[in-house]
Amino acid sequence: MNNKHVAATLAWKLACSFGILAGAFLLAMLFGAKETTLHDLWQALTWQASQKNEVMVLRELRLPREIGALLIGAAFAVSGAIMQGVTRNPLADPGLLGLTAGANMALAAAFAFIPGISYTGIMAACFVGAALGAGLVLIMSSARRGGLSPFRVVLAGAAVSAFLYAIASGISLVFKISKDVSMWTAGGLIGTSWEQVAPIAPVIVVAIVIALLLSNQLNILSLSEEVAIGLGQKQGRIKLVMFLLVIVMTGAAVALVGNMAFVGLMIPHMIRRFTGTDYRILLPVSAVAGGTFMMLADTLGRTINSPYETPVAAIVAMIGLPFFLFVVHKGGKTLS
C-alpha cells in the first residue's frame, strides 16, 4: 500500500473514529448523578467564569476524569497492538503479559517503603514494576527451544501475574496498607483530578507519537523473522524500543487507573476488522477507539447504579473475559 493510499485511508477512518469519540465524550460529560446541560458543558470547556455548581462539577470532576479515561484507553490499546505485533501473538495484552501485575506489585512496595510518595514517584515505581513483570514473562517463555510461542507466553504471563499479585497482597497485609492499595488499584477513575492527569498526559502522548512514527517498522516486525532480517531490520533494537514504549504507557496507565486487563486485547482485534493489519492505520485508530471504549465504560459505571459507582474494571472484565475466551476458541483469528 503506497503512502498516498495509506494517508487517504487513515484520514477517513480517523474521521469516523473521532466522530464516535466526540459522541462518547458528550455522553460521558452530560450523564451522571448530577444533571447537566449542553450550556453548562460549553461554559466548562471554554473556561468561562462561573460559580454554577453544574459547571464546576463538569470542569473539576468529569473533565479530568474523562481525559484520564481517554489517555489510559489509548495507552492500553496501543500497547496491546504493539505487543501483538512484536510477539506475533494474537493473545498478547499488557495485562496478560505481567505488566499490570508488576506495576501493581511496585505500587504496593512504594506505599509500604516510601510513605508519602508523590504521584510522580508512584508513576516511576509502576514503570519499574511493569518492566520487571514483562522481563520475567519473556525470560520464562523463551527459556526452552522454540522461541516465544503464543501458548507459552500466555502460560508464563498467568504464572508471573499470579506470583506478583501474591507478593503485592503479602506486602499489603504485612504493612497494613491493604485499604490504600485496593483503593488505588480497584480499576476506577473515581476522584481523578487535574493533578493526577497532568504528569501522565505528556508521557502517554509522547509514547504514542513515537509508536506511530515506528509503525512501519512494526509492520515489518510482525512478519516472519526471515522476512524482517531480509529487509535489513535491526530487530533487537526495534523490539527493545517497542517494549520500552509499552512499559512506559502501561506504567503510566496503571499509576492512574490500577489493574485493567483485556482492553489491550480487545481493541486491536476489533479495529483490525475495520482497518486491516497495516500498523500505520491500526495504531492511530486503536488509540482513538481505546479512549472511546474507556469513556463509554466509565460512563456506564457511573450511571448503571447511580448515585453509586460500579468499578470500571468490573465492566471491562465482563466484556473482556468472554471476548478472550472467544478469541482462544477461534485460535486468535477471530477478527484479524
Features:
336 residues, single chain, globular, mainly alpha, 14 helices, ABC transporter involved in vitamin B12 uptake, BtuC
Care to give the gist of this entry?
By secondary structure, the protein is mostly helical. The protein is built from 14 helices and no strands.
What would you note in describing this structure?
- By secondary structure, the chain is mostly helical.
- Helices cover 75% and strands 0% of the residues.
- It has a single domain (3-32, 66-329), classed as ABC transporter involved in vitamin B12 uptake, BtuC (Orthogonal Bundle), CATH 1.10.3470.10.
- The chain has 14 helices and no strands.
CATH third-tier fold name = ABC transporter involved in vitamin B12 uptake, BtuC
β-sheet strand percentage: under 5%
What is the CATH-assigned architecture? Answer: Orthogonal Bundle
The average pLDDT score comes to 85
Largest sheet: none
User: Shape from CA axes?
Assistant: globular
Calculate Rg over CA atoms. 20 Å
Number of strands: 0
Poorly predicted residue ranges = none
Number of domains: 1
Following the backbone from N to C, one meets helices and strands in this order, namely HHHHHHHHHHHHHH
Which CATH class?
Mainly Alpha
Termini separation (Å)?
18 Å
The class by helix and strand makeup works out as: mainly alpha
Please estimate the helix content. Answer: over 70%
What is the CATH superfamily classification?
A: ABC transporter involved in vitamin B12 uptake, BtuC
- The tally of helices reads 14
